[in-house]
Amino acid sequence: MSTFDHALVVDDLAGSRDWLSRALEQAFPGIRISVAGSLAEADEHVSSAPPLALIDLGLPDGSGIRLIEKLQPLGTLCIVATVFDDDAHLFPALHAGAQGYVLKDQSTDTLAEMLTGIAAGQPPLSPSIARRLLRHFQPVAAIADEPSLTGRETDVLRLIAKGHTVAEVATLLGISRHTAAGYLKDVYRKLSVSSRAEATLEATRRGLVGTDG
Fold it and tell me: Which one, of 71, 197, 191, 87, lies nearest residue 133 by Cα?
């Protein structure tokens, strides 16, 4: 069974750093742990390329994704530990090279068990994240309870996903800005999204726009 002798914990909250460190020590007894509270502090450890890194995304001087992009090519196994459970954070992190994504709602024991599973080739994923990944890659037709949109709502979603403002959508569809905003509100409600980024991901998954936008 392979283990890790060194890990880097990057989180700006002392309580979170302690929680992550305890889980690491439980999963890999004797492991040496370095900590950093910002990207600038973490950069000091890049040259040593620790074999394992637990990285928060919301750091005071930027996104943890920048650190993942630096460490992953060096062979570091990067795992995100965050409060963000939405597609707009999940998929960019995985695209950057993260090999795990856990939420900060786990107990120390649960997180330690997830980390131990790495040795068996099990990517550490919080259950809700695993479900989100499965849903994202399911064909739309295969989802029995797929929220249905009206033709006009679909038009609005497509245009918003292409980067148009609500005012531009209204002009393109020949409707009032108030009506366009109402359609967009209905789209967000039906798809259970709350941002343009999430709506764009959903539009892409439905095939309304290409992956290049």
Answer: 87
